[in-house]
Amino acid sequence: MVDGKCMPRPAEPDCKAGEILRDGKCTVDGPGPVESCPAGTRMRNGVCVAPPLVVNCPAPGRLLNGRCVQPLPGNGAITAGGQTKTSPTTIPTGSGLKRTVVVSTTPPGATVRLLDANGVVAEGVSPHAFVVDPGDYGWEVQLEGYLRDRSLSRSIGVTQKPADTVQVELTPVGDMNDIVKRADSEYSKGNCGVAMDLYEQVARPAGMRGEASMIWLESRYRLGQCAKREQEYDKAQAAFRAILEVRRDQWPAKLELGLTACAARSYNDGLRSFREMEGPYLGGVSAEKKQAVRVLARYGAAVCNHQDYERQEFPDRFTDLRESTVGALEEFIEAADALEGKVPADAQSTMRSALQDAKARLLRLQRGS
Fold first, then answer.
1. How far apart are CA 29 and CA 14, in angstroms?
2. Using CA atoms in the order 78, 79, 82, 83, what is the torsion angle rounded to 10 degrees?
3. Can you count the helices (H) and strands (E) in the chain?
């Protein structure tokens, strides 16, 4: 019926063999709709199709786009040019999931050991990926021809994050160990001229995170002490500043920098350094050392004032400076005595020497009164 009238149905054409009727026309373009599909196939858009190939993917792999994808192997080496990318998502502690720690070295090929509180956890050749339990880890690396190095603490924290990466730059051995031994020997004998020449030959390591860096820091410190003793104050201050540029927490270098400035009669610079030690500088010092560093800063300021007083041609005219110096020395001695038994091990020798010096200076001032 069209527009309310009955119309004759159009005649259907007769199709030849091999043709099928589709939309009122005979066609050989493709198979038409079928009622059922052979076993192992299914109908899709009127056509029988085979299902996608199912790949047998054993755990811990997973099927992705018809392929079985396996995760990175645990405790396996990273291939050259490979990169490890981690998700920033935090994994809750106690989830039972493993963490990944990648340790690389420059140059590669070093023996790498991962350490926990009980010792060595695992070993590999850099670059190396370790799959470990959540926790804090340290590292140790060794390669022939280079200084053996290790972390100063368990600085790799993978308790709350899924992975961490450490890059260690190794320092060639050369004759560094021999130089340091010879320099230390001359230093202990008081031969500062020879020792300084040797310490200046100690090259700064490529990385400043491990034990190799401590060798260089110690050589700079002794270089500065020798230069100060030889009254080469510019060289001494340069050595102490070099230490503080890479390790701000090295408070002995900060103390010596101030004392050197005062010895060079740059009293304002020295006093400024000691004021910083009692204030802003303490933010970079560990909690257990703060009080000792603060007390040693008082010693430095007292020494600076005493040196300023003693250089005066007519010291009797500077009674105010004398009295303030006496008071500063007495305050330091009292504060140091109050810290007895509480001074950290690495500050005890410095504190003892400072106490002896302060008492000797105080005695000179008292005898001169």
1. 17
2. 10
3. 9, 14
Flag residues of the chain having pLDDT under 50.
2, 30-34, 52-55, 60, 62-95
Question: Per residue in 81-134, pLDDT tens?
Answer: 333 333 333 334 444 688 888 988 888 988 998 888 787 778 889 898 888 888
Whether the model pTM is above 0.90: no
Token pair in block for residue 356: 């002896």
Contacts of 8 (CB under 8 A, 6+ apart): none
pLDDT at 326: 93
Contacts 24+ apart (CB under 8 A), 151-157: 151/115, 151/209, 151/210, 152/209, 152/210, 152/211, 152/214, 154/115, 154/116, 154/117, 155/209, 156/101, 156/114
What is the rounded distance in angstroms from the CA atom of residue 336 to the CA atom of residue 69? Answer: 66
And the tokens for 174? 């050369």
Q: Which residue, chain included where needed, has tokens 């041609």?
A: 313
CA proximity to 299, closest of 314, 315, 277, 320: 277
To the nearest 10 degrees (0 to 180), the angle between helices 267-278 and 251-263 is 160
Strand ranges in 78-206 using DSSP code E only, listed in sequence order: 99-106, 111-116, 119-125, 128-132, 136-142, 149-150, 156-157, 163-169
128-132 and 156-157 strand pairing: unpaired
DSSP bridge pairs for 151: 210
Q: How many CA atoms lie within 13 A of 271 on its CB side?
A: 12
- Cβ contact 91:162 at 8 Å: yes
CA distance 114 to 120: 6
Render pLDDT for 146-191 as a digit per residue (tens, 0 to 9).
777 777 666 677 778 888 888 888 877 665 777 888 888 998 888 8
Name the residue with tokens 């080496």.
Answer: 77
Q: What is the pLDDT of residue 50?
A: 53
